[in-house]
Amino acid sequence: MTEPQEAHPLAEAIRQMLDNGLPSAATVHLGGVPSGTPTPYVVIYPDIGTETPADRSLADDVSTDFRFQATSVGATYTQAMLTAGMANTLLLTTIPAVTGRRVRPIRQEGSQPVRREDESSPLWFATAQYLARSDRTS
Known about the structure:
About 25% of the residues lie in helices and about 35% in strands. It has two helices and seven strands; from the N terminus they run αββββαβββ.
């Protein structure tokens, strides 16, 4: 059975991977940002992980599906779009390392157009959803 604490190390590994790979002007956060955070930035909103449905009947030790959303925020449309593109490239070409787990390549599952957040701020944002599948190695 998937234990919720297994998902956090992967979320942190993904955050760290993006933080290391994005330009120093962009920051990466997990689960939210403090008020007044300068743009551009990326926020990772993770789930707690679930058992992979295809593997449930095959063995007791099943893979974990870890879904998350990456929200890229900028002061302009261009800034949000460029940050989202860089984050997407990193997520699809880099495999995060987590001790005790074999992480498979991340897959993009969906995205929404870049848009302005007119109701609460003048910022622009882009969102994309991803799946990271992993197995225990020990």
